[in-house]
Amino acid sequence: MVSRSVQCVLMVLLALAPALAAVPAERRVAALPQADRLVVHKAQRVLELLHRGEVLRRYKVALGLVPEGHKEREGDFRTPEGRYSIGYRNPRSEYFLSIQVTYPRDQDVKRAKANGWDAGGAIMIHGRPNNPSHDAAWYDRNDWTDGCISVSNSDMVEIWLMTRTDIPIDIYP
């Protein structure tokens, strides 16, 4: 079953589809600036989209249940820290859209293996759950992911449209 918020977004997109179809693709893309870097400040719970060092957009984020410290292993509920890049996009995620953060790097895997752990993976930037178990205000107030970076669904649409794969993402403590 699809959540009410996802249904609303889909209805809006369907209503806008005829108008958007009349606009040439190059003009639709040009309407939004394109980010060449993402920066997450975990302590401030902020994700920034940048272009040539200028902040284009700033979003409030929720992080893993244990947000302090660098991710060390599967199941530690931490959001990684360091330089990664944007990987694949999943429009059919169990969350409202998702974009991969390329964790783990080789050094993350080596560190985890040295301790006998699995480094984990599937770190994403994503919207809210498609089948939420809480109201929207709860997701706004709490760190609730398994280590991912979560934003509101409307913010996720903008991030999806303003980014491409292979751009860097820096995640700071």
Distance between the termini: 37 Å
CATH C-level class? Mainly Beta
Task: Give me the secondary-structure category.
Answer: alpha+beta
Shape: globular
State the low-pLDDT regions, or none: none
Major pleated sheet: 8 strands, mixed
Question: What's the number of helices?
Answer: 5
Mean pLDDT comes to: 88
Residue share in β-strands: 15-25%
Number of domains: 1
Output the radius of gyration.
Answer: 17 Å
Percent helix: 25-40%
CATH architecture: Beta Barrel
CATH superfamily heading: L,D-transpeptidase catalytic domain-like
Looking at the structure, the CATH topology is L,D-transpeptidase catalytic domain-like
Q: Which H/E pattern describes the elements?
A: HHEEEEEHEHEHE
Topology at a glance:
Elements: H1 4-21, H2 25-30, E1 37-41, E2 46-51, E3 54-60, E4 82-90, E5 98-101, H3 106-114, E6 124-126, H4 136-141, E7 149-150, H5 153-162, E8 168-172
Parallel strand pairs: 1-8, 6-7
Antiparallel strand pairs: 1-2, 2-3, 4-5, 4-8, 5-6
Quick rundown:
The chain is of the alpha+beta class and 173 residues long. The protein is 28% helix and 24% strand.
Written overview of the protein:
The protein has one domain: Beta Barrel (L,D-transpeptidase catalytic domain-like). The protein has 173 residues and is of the alpha+beta class. A hairpin with a 7-residue loop joins β4 (82-90) and β5. The chain has helices spanning 4-21, 25-30, 106-114, 136-141, 153-162; strands at residues 37-41, 46-51, 54-60, 82-90, 98-101, 124-126, 149-150, 168-172. The chain has five helices and eight strands, in the order ααβββββαβαβαβ. The termini are far apart. The protein has an eight-stranded mixed sheet, covered by helices on one side. The protein is 28% helix and 24% strand.
